[in-house]
Design a protein that fits this description.
13-stranded mixed sheet; globular; Jelly Rolls; 13 strands; alpha+beta
């Protein structure tokens, strides 16, 4: 395998200033994309496109019916358990928290987050199912498919499934960019669909002309999206004119999978708000 060559290529990339703007959509079938990852040239070209502002949509990564069941299970967690701290310290359990920051300090949020980690038992099977869809793609970040999975927070970085619910009535994340220290590719599967579950708001990127590019209308439930976390991005308020419904599963659902820095790390990198 050519993993070490990919690691070396990524090391050189990280010496450069991150590019911040959307450039183009690349459209693939999920299975066909996985097959192409056996080709070193394809992997390197894909990495170079991702860091240059190309966003990848991988069609039919997960069956749509999976998310009908997953959303019910996550709603049951919300209804029947207490929230956890979002800080990823040793001993953190699977669970949820509500993020609501409407101040002008940092970026603004309104969402429900559900965390899943490898060291906890997953009775829902949500983590176990989605992590297997993600593992073959880790080559794009210079990781073997089982590398990092067993890490715990004191190792400095961990693998995490982060299910995010943007509720009807203004679920959002304001414009920002994320750290590229660990990963140049960010992965997420859509659990809902624009035009069916909501028709206002959703994921956006920004191009060099500072124009907002709305992505959700291009994506179907079960499709996976790959993008460079250093791009300027956010989630516009979901159906903002309706009454906020934080206790309902209605709205936009996004299931993010990646390697992230834990809160055991001093001087941990955080997302940066963009005006």
């Amino acid at each position: 395998m050519f993993l070490q060559e990919i690691k070396n290529h990524l090391k050189e990339i990280r010496k450069k200033e991150p590019y911040r703007f959307f450039k183009k959509v690349e459209d693939f079938n999920y299975i066909n994309f996985l097959k192409s990852l056996n080709d070193k040239k394809f992997v390197i070209e894909t990495i170079d496109k991702i860091i240059s502002g190309h966003i990848y949509i991988l069609r039919s990564a997960v069956p749509k019916d999976f998310f009908l069941d997953a959303k019910i299970k996550l709603q049951n967690i919300f209804n029947n358990t207490n929230p956890i701290s979002p800080k990823m310290l040793n001993g953190i359990k699977n669970g949820y928290y509500v993020s609501e920051n409407s101040s002008n300090i940092g970026y603004q949020t309104m969402d429900r987050s559900f965390y899943f980690f490898s060291w906890n038992k997953d009775d829902t099977e949500i983590y176990n199912t989605l992590i297997e869809k993600y593992k073959p793609l880790k080559i794009l970040n210079g990781f073997d498919k089982n590398e990092i999975t067993k890490n715990i927070p004191t190792d400095g970085f961990v693998e995490r499934l982060h299910a995010i619910h943007y509720p009807v009535g203004g679920g959002k994340i304001s414009k920002h960019f994320d750290s590229t220290k660990l990963c140049i590719a960010n992965f997420g599967v859509y659990g809902t669909e624009f035009g069916i579950d909501y028709n206002q708001g959703g994921f956006f990127l920004e191009n060099e002309k500072k124009e907002k590019i709305n992505i959700d209308s291009m994506v179907k439930t079960g499709d996976m999206v790959i993008f460079y976390p250093g791009l300027i991005h956010g989630v516009d308020p979901v159906l903002p004119e309706k009454k906020l419904s934080i206790n309902s599963q209605d709205g936009r659902w996004f299931f993010n999978m990646n390697v992230v820095e834990s809160h055991e790390v001093k001087n941990r990198d955080y997302s940066v708000s963009v005006k």
